[in-house]
Each structure stands twice: as structure tokens, then as C-alpha cells.
Amino acid sequence: ADFSLYDAVECNITGPKSEGVPVVSSFDQLFADFADSIPPELRESIRRCGFVRPTPVQKFAIPVGLAGRDIMCCAQTGSGKTAAFLVPMLASMIKWGRGTGALTVPYEGPCKPDTLILCPTRELCLQIFEDALRFCSQTNFRVVRVYGQESVKNQIFEIAKGADVCVATPGRLWDFVSSGIVSLTELNCLVFDEADRMLEMGDMDKCVRPLVENFGMPCKENRQTMMFSATFPDAIQKLAGDFLYEHLFVAVGAIGS
Ligand code: ADP
Ligand code: MG
């Protein structure tokens, strides 16, 4: 990537109380300006990823996420959206001492992840899982993946060892939640990746909405919800609004439709 192009990318942040939302130009500035919010473990894992400069979506969305705000963010494919939600999500978990790490005692009852990343496909689930592992490398957080087209046995085995960060496709997660393997009642942060596909997939009314509304997940005022997508058509924005609280709309570069 030609990193010198980054400074030319425009961004528009709109929504309630959007005045004065900070923007950063480098990870050093991010670490300096958000000294209290980005713990050393996370700085180190960002460094180990080899990330030198934040991409535009990271420059604009990470500060919004660190401020605890809900986000609807639109930025093109390949622009670094994964780190844009992983950094604020993990920063908050570390800062507030959430997440239990690997369980030493055999577990009983449903596991209660602190954060949930919903995504539309198995491939994407595996990709986000790998990225989340890298960003958690300096923490004791347990990251688990939940997706279809694979036997449930191994996934349940991994969940039983602890699940702080759950990366999931909606269908399989619905199976686990409705059978009491996973509980969403302790969730502090909810992410929709490729939100346009999440919200328009046939699963929306069958799985996605029930997962958010019918199984005791904290209401939108009591969790942080972040949605990332390459496109946000009006109809999808309207649907997404059901799950967001006073969110900021972060549009990076040209908005697809
Ligand atoms: P998107 O979800 O927007 O399609 P990804 O989050 O998958 O994009 O990132 C695309 C690629 O860019 C990945 O290989 C990722 O590791 C890399 N990347 C992300 N942020 C940076 C950065 N700040 N510096 C260098 N590479 C980055
Ligand atoms: Mg992505």
C-alpha cells in the first residue's frame, strides 16, 4: 500500500455530539493522546503486527471507539477495518479488567463472553479470529470462534476453556445460545463486521435480531455497538439504527452504495 496516500483520504463524522471528536495521524500520537486508554499490552501487539501508520479508517474510528461511542463506519475493503474495531474493543476490556482468561476450574453452565464479533461467513470468522489472536497476544484473553459447516464438538470444547472474545456467524451462535452453551447476558461490546451483509442476510430475522433482542443481551444503552462495512445503503442504515445508541456515522473516502 502507498501510505503517503492516507493523508489525502477524507472522512466525515456525523451524529449526535460529534463536535470535537479527536483524530490521530500516527500510532505514536494515538498512544500519546490516549495514554490512559491504550494499555501497554495493546501497544505491544500493534507494534508486533508491524503496523506503523494507522490507515484512514483507523485514524478516524479508533478515537471514536475509545471514547466509548457507538459507531456505524463505512470504509472500503482492505482499508484496515478489523483493527479499527479490535483496538477500542480490547483497550476497554484491558482497561476495565474484563475478561477472565483461560478457566482453571472445569466450567459449568454457559460461558459468558465479554465481547461478540458477528460476521456473515465462516471465512471471515476465521480471518477475524486470527487477527483477534494477534491483538490479544499480550493478554490472557481467550478468543473463540463459532461458525457453521464444522462439527460442534471442537467448538464447544474450546468454549468450555473460557471465551472472553467470541467471533461468530449468527446461525451457529444461535444454536449455542438457544441450547445454553453460550450466554450473552454479560456482553459489554458487540461488533457487526460486514454489517451490510449481516443485516440483509436471510438470517437477519431468524438469527441476528433474536440474538440481540431475545436472549438477555444488555440493551443498546448498556453496551458498546460498532458496525463496520464497505457499504451502508439507506435501508441498511435504517435497520442498523435499531441496534445502535446515539451512534456516530464515520464515512471514510467515497461511500459505496
Ligand atoms: P478490511 O476489513 O477493511 O477489508 P482488513 O482489516 O482485513 O481490511 O485489513 C487489510 C490488510 O491490511 C490486512 O492484511 C491487515 O493486516 C493490513 N493492515 C491493517 N491495518 C494496517 C496498518 N495500519 N498498517 C499496515 N497494514 C495494515
Ligand atoms: Mg473486513
TrEMBL record:
- Which positions fall inside the DEAD-box RNA helicase Q domain? 31-59
Signal peptide annotation: none
**Where can the motif Q motif be found?**
31-59
Question: Where do the Helicase ATP-binding domain residues begin and end?
Answer: 62-250
Q: What is this protein's record name?
A: RNA helicase
Q: Which residues of the full protein are shown?
A: 198 to 454 of 802
